[in-house]
Each structure stands twice: as structure tokens, then as C-alpha cells.
Amino acid sequence: MENVRSVRRAVAVEVESPPPGLYAVEEAYRRIVEEVAVYVAERGTLEREKYNELYRRFRELYPWLYSQLIQQAMNQGVEAGRSFLEARRDGRVRKPRPEVRWVSMRFAKDSWSYRKTAASAAPVRLALSLPGGRREVWIKPHRRLWLYWWKALRGEAELASTLMVKRRRGRWYAIFVFDVQPRGEPPAEAVAFDVNENSVAVARVSLLATVDAVARWNRQYINPAVYSIRTDFGRLAKRYEAVRGRKLEELKRRYPYARRDGDGRRQNATDTREFRRFAGRLRERRRKDARAKQVAREVARSPAVIVTEELGKNPQEGMIGLEEKKVERRELRHRIKQIPFKKLVGAVEGKAAERGSVVVYVSPYRNSKVCPIHFAKLEDGGDWHTLRCPHGHDVDRDHAAVLNMLWKTAPAGWMKAV
To answer: Are 202 and 229 within 8 A, CB to CB?
Structure first.
């Protein structure tokens, strides 16, 4: 298992009573990152001579800032500039120069440390190199930090030498980075999952029981366990759309004559500061992330071979294009575009890498249109989710999709078993 790559995990812990020096360091750090990012975005690179020149100027401008923080800020500015150039090439941004609104300060191994107490083997106090010397701050450990710290004590993970500190909504957080070694257990299951509007269909097959059942032709062990996990992504998008719509109607009544910009266009109510702050407080993205992580924990709960469909670059547009006759309504198209396909699959990939599982991608061709038992094309049964097999039984299209994905992993063996 020496060739197994480690998985990087970050754990954010809130800082209790942060020292005032953090605000001054954050402002200086942000200015350095923004200046270097603008330079890289304009010239495409940062030469070594220019790097040394900028470093000397920053040292003269901020003599109270530690040299390691200046170097980390400059390196982060180079990364931000390159990311801006890549996004501009792909057409994702139209701004002439990058703007850095907030930063995550990186404290190298010599600019931070932690102290242990007699009753705890995890850090409860951090010492940061701030203006005026080392400053100790208390943190609020939680269960996730205890989990990864215990793995580090057992040798299953390693704490990175760099600590990140950032501020969000008036609160400071210390971010510990762990390199976790995946489990060395062989896969015991084959799991297929398919993402739908309001649920995720899952099918599980025990590999050991299946091999034994094939040898003895005992078919009761071959039947996979098929079930659904409720996510309600579509219902969540519908509810948030209604809430935002009511807020927009209120703003239109309060500001009936919105000012026009320089091009003569009327200002949209969604561009107002009040609406943006209102939408940010809804926490829609956070709830979607939480549900995606919940599905990932369920799908990759044990070492397995995980099978899913190849989504492509834009699965939402592909889903709308393939179902043109059924996605004519604007509300349904909006709900489909709000389903986080990529985020959910990415969460499963991350959890699978941590648990030692393998993710396999198969073609989405006719997964939900073929009977997984007789391999015949399904017919319309009068319901969107229930289709009719020519051999005389009903088939749930979500369950058919995950079963057909399992069959695609090893067609000959599975067909013989069935």
C-alpha cells in the first residue's frame, strides 16, 4: 500500500477571542495578494527578478509583517493571477483585472504552533506570529477535528505544516490540513447510484456473497438491495425561487422607478445590495452542500466499487436537451439547472478516496429505458417513474438505471447470474 496516494482534508475550527493584530495582518496580506495577482494577470508570469524586487518593497512597506507571511501572500497572489487568466480564457469572467475580496492567510510551520493540555492530545491553544511577537489564541474543537486528530495520532493521517486562518462574517477560523491515508481493505461491495431531481437511487451488491452464490447457483444472494435517498433538490429550488420572487416583488414596489445606468438600461432589482444580502442569508448553497455530503457518506460508507454515469461538462443542459418534450416549462427547467450533479459526484469521489473505494464511470446510454431483467426496451406505462416491460411487469426507471449501470461493469458475468 505504499503507492496509495493520500487524501487531503481541511477542518475549520472557530477561534475564540481573536487578537486585534489579526485584522492588521489580514489587510496587509490581502493587499500583497491583490497586487501580485494583478501583475500576473497583466503579464502572464512573475519573473524571479521581479519577485525579489516586490519582496524587498513589501518588506520595507510592512516591516512588522513576518517574512514567511509575505512569501505566502506572494505565492497565493501568483495562484490567484493564474486562476484569473484561466477563467478569462474559458469565458467565465469578464473583468479586466482580478479583485481579491478576502484571503485565507497561510502560516508556515515556523510561524505557528499549538500547546497541549494534560487532559487532551489535540490543540486547544494556538500560538501565531503576529505584530509584537507570538500571540496565543483559544480554539473551539469539535467532533470532526477530534476524528482527524485521532487518526493523526494513530498514524492514519499526517498534519500539514501550514495553518490557514481566515475571517468569514465577523468570525475567525483556523483551518487544519490533514493528509489522510486511505483504508487498505479490498472492496466488498459493488454500489451504483443515479442522481435525480428529488432523490438518489442506490443499488448494492455484495461481491463475496455474489461469487459464492454463482458457484452454488443460489439466486437469493444475487438480488441487489435497491433503495432511494431523499435529497429534495427540486423542492428546495422551488421553495427558494418562491421566496426570492416575493422579495423581488417587494423591491419593485418600493423602488418603482429604478435608475438607469450609463448605457441607458434600467437597473435590475436583483443587482441591488439589499437583494444580494437577502439572498446570501437564505443559505441555499450550504444546505445543498450538506445534503450532497450526506449522500456521499451513505454511498461510500464501506470500501466498494462505486459505479455512476459519466456526466459530461454540463449535465443540466444535457438532461434538458435529452428530454425536450418533458422540459418545456420554465419552472421545471430551473429546477433541473439547480440540481448539483457535479458537486454530489465530487463529494462521493472525495469520500470514496478516503475510504479506499474506486469510482467507475459508465455510459448513460439507455440506462433508464431498458429492463434490467430481460434487457428489453421499456414502454410508457402512463407514469413518469413507472415504465412497462414487454414481458408483462412494471419497472421503476430510477431502479432500472442503477441496475443497468451495475450490469455494464461486467455484462457477461451479470447476465449469466441473472
So the answer is: yes
190 DSSP β-pair partners: 205, 305
The pLDDT of residue 122: 59
Question: What does the block give as the cell for 75?
Answer: 505565492
Counting every residue written for the chain, the total comes to 418
C-alpha cell at 363: 455510459
pLDDT greater than 50 at residue 418: no
**How many helices, marked H, and strands, marked E, lie in the chain?**
13, 16
Q: Cell for 88?
A: 478569462
First to last CA, the chain: 35
Q: Identify the residue with better confidence: 110 or 3.
A: 110
Beta strands 386-388; 379-380: pairing state: antiparallel
Q: Is 282 exposed, middle or buried (0-12, 13-18, 19+ CB in 10 A)?
A: middle
Asked if 296 contacts 344 with a C-beta cutoff of 8 angstroms, the reply is yes
Rounded Cα distance, 312 and 300, in Å:
22
pLDDT digits (tens, 9 = 90+) for 229-270: 998 888 888 888 888 888 888 887 776 655 544 555 555 777
Q: Which own/partner pairs from 378-386 qualify as long-range (CB within 8 Å, at least 24 positions apart)?
A: 384/326
CA distance 27 to 20: 12
Query: In angstroms, rounded to a whole number, what is the distance separating the alpha carbons of residues 300 and 195?
Result: 15
62 - beta bridge partners? none
- Category of 87 on φ-ψ map: left (φ > 0), alpha (ψ -120 to 50) or beta: alpha
Amino acid in position 68: Q
For residues 336 and 376, the answer to whether their CB atoms sit within 8 Å is: no
